[in-house]
Design goal:
GO molecular function, one term: deoxyribodipyrimidine photo-lyase activity
Largest sheet: none
Order of helices and strands: HH
Helix content: 40-55%
CATH superfamily: HUPs
GO biological process, one term: photoreactive repair
CATH architecture: 3-Layer(aba) Sandwich
Keywords: Chromophore
Radius of gyration: 15 Å
Shape: globular
Protein name: CRYD protein
Structural class: mainly alpha
Number of domains: 1
CATH topology: Rossmann fold
């Protein structure tokens, strides 16, 4: 979770992420983790800037051969 996506406000002073959306996201991640666990896998969840968190995970794991990611689409107003 990148705090920059959830903290502060967006247009017209509205929060970037309201309480209902945040609850939905957290419940979805929890459900995904439980589903993966049943299949013998896991889900790594971290909070921080992706550019820092991914670098730290690669360092911790030591044997990473590939990294895949996507970039959030930003709305242009």
């Amino acid at each position: 979770f990148d705090p920059r996506q959830y903290l502060g406000t967006h247009c017209y002073g509205f929060p970037k992420t309201g309480p209902h959306r945040l609850r939905f996201l957290l419940e979805s991640v929890k459900d995904l983790r439980e589903t993966l666990k049943k299949k013998g896998s896991t889900l790594v969840v971290r909070k921080g800037k992706p550019e820092d968190v991914v670098r730290d995970l690669i360092t911790q794991l030591g044997s990473v051969s590939a990294v895949a990611f996507h970039e959030e689409v930003r709305e242009i107003l």
